[in-house]
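May I ask you to review the protein record following this short note?
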Amino acid sequence: MDTRQEAAAWTRTPKDQQWVKWGGGTGSPDTRFTRRDTARIDTHLSHTTTSGATRLSSELLGFSLEARVLLVNCDDMGMHTAVNTAVVDSVERGIASSCSLMTPCPAADHAMRLLSRRPEVPFGVHLTLVRDSRRHSWGPLAPRERVPSLLDDTGWFFVATPEGRARLLAQARPEEIEREFRAQIEAVAAVGHAPTHLDFHCLADGGRDDILDLTVALAAEYGLAVRVWLEPGCGKARRQGLPVADNAFLDSFSLEAQDIEGKAARYAQLLSELPAGLSEWAVHPAIVDEEWRTIEPAGWRVRQSDHHFLTSDQAAEVLQREGIDVIDYRPLQRVWSPARDFASRPPSPNHRS
């Protein structure tokens, strides 16, 4: 069975796994937490057992029904040294628990050096098929002549505008997407890193059902979890007993302008209102200076305010007060890909550059 056939199957079998919590929480997976307002979790967001009962993803990871579990992942590592520095700071000194690396970007080598010196920092591969603007020269790691359907008229990735994404998704061939995704994953393996998961840059759940299916198959092969937060992917994952976010996914770039101006207060409110179950925040910290304001004139405030909150005393205090457990992708990885070990995995016999 090749990867694309395997993608249609989604035949992962979950097993009970024991794990050690890593992050800013206050309890263990089996601890019951009390809080002022226990939110109702809709059953369609839950896993159904053979007896007809429903289980949250957080329960699959060993937490109690009432536990509020949060995965705080810093996206876009590798984009620029200003992002890399802020990501590491947000994990080491702040409440962030995980990060995602963009291997086609110009600061990817710098990011991998930082991660080499910090093997305790969990990270995933931020699969990249688009670039943020025409100012960015981001292109494939696979040879260009082998992935022409992924490139715009200039020979680079499409710009991540609605039009650019639509053109990419209309023409991108599955075999070329697989070739490029493998190249991005193998770039991490080549330097001895062991990621925890796969997620996507500016293409929610890959942008197409077949791209998500392909990614899930690659994750099974490489022993990784996958960030899935839209339908039909979430429903498919839940039916297979695979943990995905139980609650609404938060991308810090989706917050309203007024929330950016009052980011600390907004984040504190969201934490205090966090429902039971597994939630995920995708945040985008950066150390902002004049150069970065020029690079990203429309988005630097999002990144700066993310970094400020993630590393603030207020963030840690709210988590402590609310009894929220912060985890990374490793416990999800152990359910998505039990008995798999990326670090000891031999090169894929199907991989061709």
